[in-house]
Specification:
The protein is mainly α. It contains seven helices and no strands.
Amino acid sequence: MTHDAARQSARRLGAYIKKRREEKGLSIRQLAGNAGIDSGGLTRIEHGQHATLPSLLILDRLARALDVPLIELLAKAGCDTSHDLHDCIRSRYDHLPEEAITAATAYAEQLAAEYGDPSRSITRRE
């Protein structure tokens, strides 16, 4: 992913998170508290001020706090969610070594299994 494409993805993700936060009537501090993240970091995410996207852990925390599927945030972050999760993570975090992509995929699958609600599934099974 090019630097410009990464910036566009960060802005798109940030705008979506801000929209969902406002729809839920939450302040930045409230959402940050609910997600267990720093409010300054959330502000930077909402304004698309990161050169890279937030970690999978942060995206998961935000998805839970906003009550949206993680795959929705991954899609807004530029992942092609029509492919399997491993490919999606690889396409978005292409700067990471393959071992890290595999670990992130396993972590995401673990989260999906642990919280088990099929309507919030992060994988698409056809």
